[in-house]
Design brief:
With 516 residues, this protein is mostly helical. 74% of the residues lie in helices and 1% in strands. The chain has a two-stranded antiparallel sheet.
Length: 516
C-alpha cells in the first residue's frame, strides 16, 4: 500500500470537496479521515489514528508556538481596534494628503503601518483614501487597485510580524520535517524570491500607480457630488454594515467558513439583519466609541517589529555567525511568539495608562484571538494530512507516476497554473496553500525542482486567488468600501493580472529548464 494509488485518495477527496463546498476545512477533515482509514481500515482504528495525528502534530513544540502566535496575533489586532489606534491613524493620514500624487504615495507608504493582514489594511486605509481621492476625481477602481496590490501580494512576501508569516512557516514545518529539509523559517525565507506573482503584481502596481493612475486625473464632476453607484443591487452608504460585520478576516481568508460574495448573498445577509439574527461584533462596536489616537497604533507596531527583529537575531546567534546567518538560522516561531507576548503586554499597559477601560482591553484581547480559531483549526488539519500523506507514501507515488513521465520543466509551471485555478475558485490564499503544499513538496522530493521553488510556486498561485478572485474576502471588502460592483472590480483586477500570470508561468518553466 505504501506509495500506491491509495496514497493520493485523500487528495482526491480534499480538492473536489473544497472546490464544491468552498469549505477547505471540511475537505481537509474528510481527507484526513479517508487517509487514516486507508492506513487503519477498522471502525475505531481510523478515528483513533486521526485523533493521534492531530494531537501529535499540534503538540510539537514548534507547531504549538505557531498556534499561540496566531491566537495572540488576533488579540493584537483586536486591541488595536478597540483602542482607537486604527481610527486615529486614519484621521492623521487624511489630514496630510493634498494632491493626487501625494495621495498615491501616502497609500503606498501606509502599508508600512498596515501590512499585518490584507483585510486589516483594506478596512483601515480604504475608507479614508476613498474620500480623499474623490476630491481629486480619480477612478474608484484605480484607487481600490492601488490599495489591493499592496495588501495580499505584499503580505505574502513580508518576512516578519504578520499572520501570513506564521501560517506559511507552519506549512513549511511539517512538510519540511517529512522532506528532511532545514529549519522551516529558513525554508520560508528561501521561497520568498520564488513567489513570482507577488513581486510581479507589486511592480505592476507601482508602475500603474505612478505612471498611469496619477498622470490621468479625471475632469468630470467629482464623484462625491454624484449619486453613489449601486453595489450589486444595494445602494452604497458610508461604510456599509457588510464591512462592519466582517469579523474574522483571517478565518474568511482561510476558507474556513463560507462567505459568498455576490448579490444573492448580500440579499441573504439583509434578510438575516431584518430578522435580528445578526450578532453584532463587540470589537467593532467598541472601536466606534474609542477615542482616536494614532499613537495607539504606531507605538505597538514599532514595538512588535523591533522586538521581532531583536529576538529573531538573538535566537539564531552563535559565535562566528554574521547577522544575516543568525537571522536565517533563527528559531522564528519562538522569536515571533516572544515578541508578540511582549507587545501585547506593552499594549495593555499603554492603553490602561491612557484611560482605556480594562473591560474593553479584555474584550479586544479575547474576541480578537477567537477570530483566529478557524485558521488554527485549518493549520492543525494541514499538519495532520501532511503526516498521513507522508506515511502513505504520497511522495514516492508522485515521483514514480508524475516526475518520471512528465518533463520536469513543465511540472512547476503546471503546479502554478493549477494552483491559480483552484485559488480563483476558492477565493482563498490559505486554502490553496493548504491543499497544494503537500503535493509541491512531494514533487520536489521526486526531482521536479528545489523545495523553495516548488513552495514558492504554490505561494504565488494562492496569492493570485486571494488578490483577484471575486470570492476573495479582500475583493468583496474593497468593492464594498469603494461602492463598486464586486464582479466588475474582480474582472478589472483579473485583466490586469493575466499578463503577470503568463510571465510567471514562463519564469517557472525557465527555472525548470535551467535545472535540467
Amino acid at each position: 500500500m505504501h506509495g500506491s494509488f491509495a496514497s493520493i485518495v485523500p487528495f482526491i477527496v480534499i480538492i473536489p470537496v473544497a472546490l464544491l463546498t468552498k469549505q477547505v476545512i471540511l475537505g481537509l477533515a474528510l481527507g484526513l479521515f479517508v487517509g487514516c482509514y486507508i492506513e487503519h481500515p477498522r471502525p475505531l482504528a481510523g478515528l483513533e489514528s486521526a485523533i493521534t495525528y492531530i494531537g501529535r502534530e499540534v503538540g510539537l513544540s514548534g507547531n504549538m508556538s505557531l498556534v499561540l502566535f496566531l491566537y495572540l496575533f488576533g488579540s493584537f489586532v483586536g486591541l488595536l481596534r478597540v483602542s482607537g489606534g486604527v481610527k486615529g491613524f486614519s484621521r492623521w493620514m487624511e489630514a496630510r494628503i493634498h494632491s493626487p500624487r501625494g495621495a498615491f504615495v501616502f497609500t503606498w507608504l501606509s502599508s508600512l503601518f498596515t501590512f499585518m493582514a490584507p483585510d486589516f489594511r483594506i478596512l483601515t486605509v480604504a475608507p479614508i483614501v476613498s474620500r480623499v481621492f474623490e476630491r481629486f476625481r480619480i477612478a474608484k477602481e484605480q484607487v481600490a487597485f492601488t490599495i489591493d496590490v499592496t495588501a495580499t501580494p505584499l503580505c505574502a512576501v513580508v518576512p516578519i510580524g504578520t499572520a501570513f508569516v506564521a501560517y506559511m512557516v507552519g506549512l513549511m514545518h511539517t512538510s519540511a520535517h517529512h522532506a528532511g529539509a532545514a529549519s522551516p523559517y529558513a525554508l520560508f525565507l528561501a521561497t520568498i524570491p520564488y513567489n513570482f506573482l507577488a513581486w510581479a503584481m507589486l511592480l505592476m502596481g507601482a508602475f500603474l500607480t505612478f505612471f498611469r493612475f496619477s498622470a490621468h486625473v479625471r475632469t468630470a464632476t467629482p464623484s462625491a457630488a454624484r449619486t453613489p453607484r449601486r453595489v450589486d443591487g444595494e445602494q452604497g452608504r458610508g461604510l456599509p454594515r457588510l464591512v462592519h460585520e466582517r469579523r474574522g478576516a483571517f478565518a474568511l481568508e482561510a476558507g474556513a467558513m463560507s462567505f459568498p460574495q455576490d448579490a444573492a448573498v448580500q440579499r441573504g445577509m439583509r434578510r438575516r439583519e431584518a430578522s435580528d439574527e445578526e450578532v453584532p461584533d463587540p470589537v467593532e462596536a467598541l472601536a466606534k466609541r474609542a477615542h482616536p489616537s494614532a499613537l495607539n497604533l504606531v507605538f505597538p507596531l514599532a514595538v512588535l517589529l523591533a522586538s521581532t527583529l531583536a529576538f529573531t537575531v538573538i535566537s539564531g546567534y552563535a559565535p562566528g555567525r554574521t547577522l544575516v546567518q543568525a537571522f536565517v538560522q533563527a528559531n522564528a516561531a519562538k522569536a515571533m511568539l516572544e515578541a508578540l507576548i511582549l507587545t501585547v503586554v506593552v499594549m495593555a499597559i499603554l492603553y490602561a495608562v491612557r484611560g482605556t477601560p480594562l473591560n474593553r482591553i479584555m474584550v479586544g484581547f479575547l474576541q480578537g484571538g477567537n477570530e483566529m480559531m478557524p485558521v488554527i483549526v485549518l493549520l492543525a488539519l494541514i499538519w495532520a494530512v501532511s503526516a498521513v500523506a507522508s506515511d502513505l507514501g504520497f511522495a514516492q507515488f508522485c515521483q514514480r507516476e508524475i516526475v518520471q513521465y512528465v518533463p520536469r520543466s513543465f511540472i512547476i509551471p503546471a503546479l502554478f497554473i493549477f494552483g491559480c485555478l483552484i485559488s480563483y475558485v476558492l477565493g482563498s490564499s490559505f486554502g490553496t496553500w493548504a491543499i497544494l503544499m503537500p503535493l509541491a513538496f512531494s514533487l520536489a522530493q521526486g526531482g521536479a525542482g528545489s523545495l523553495a521553488i516548488a513552495a514558492g510556486a504554490v505561494f504565488a498561485s494562492g496569492t493570485f486567488g486571494g488578490f483577484v478572485s471575486p470570492l476573495s474576502d479582500n475583493t468583496v471588502a474593497m468593492a464594498t468600501v469603494m461602492k463598486v460592483s464586486v464582479m466588475d472590480y474582480a474582472n478589472y483586477k483579473l485583466k490586469t493580472a493575466l499578463i503577470p500570470v503568463a510571465a510567471c508561468a514562463v519564469g517557472y518553466f525557465l527555472l525548470g529548464a535551467m535545472a535540467r
